């Protein structure tokens, strides 16, 4: 009888230990899943940032080639959020179509044939603005000074914009200086117009 009770107790303890082991394993699995989820989210975000940087670089090269071929600057769009897209006239569209009938135009100079960003970050535009002054894309400074041609993108998630600034200017600052501009006071979940310097322009 004594041996039977001991055997039953041992079986009961093994069952309890198995239940404890299972709970510990589940807790570890849940923790690892959370870490993996954060890592995947971070990787996706970094991929998106890299994609935008690649687009900026390609458009910058296209802009420089336009100026090299034609000997003139691309006239700026009238708005960052509503650029010229009619197929005639000024602005970003001249990089993929001879919209302004520019002498010696030999494009297209970029691989996309639209102002619309393919990942849904708004629209591209070309704007003139000072390099040597503090401003954000909502109020581009066009007063006399060292002028540049800026590529704007109208609806970039705030988190992506912050990462872009760190990649381009190496800072996590105010967003109103350097080669990349945005409103750093934006909140996570908001979308922002950003500006990227393509080139200094002739005074």
Structure description:
This protein is α+β, with helices and mostly antiparallel strands and 203 residues long. It has one domain. It is built from two helices and four strands. Strands 1-2-4-3 form a four-stranded antiparallel beta sheet. The longest helix has 69 residues. The protein is elongated and about 80 Å long. The mean pLDDT is 84.
In short, what is this structure?
With 203 residues, the protein is α+β, with helices and mostly antiparallel strands.
SSE topology sketch:
Elements: H1 2-70, E1 124-130, E2 147-157, H2 158-169, E3 180-181, E4 191-200
Antiparallel strand pairs: 1-2, 2-4, 3-4
Helix pairs in contact: 1-2
Please state how the strands of the largest beta sheet are arranged side by side.
Answer: 1-2-4-3
- Spell the H/E element sequence: HEEHEE
* Secondary structure tally: strands: 4
Uncertain segments: none
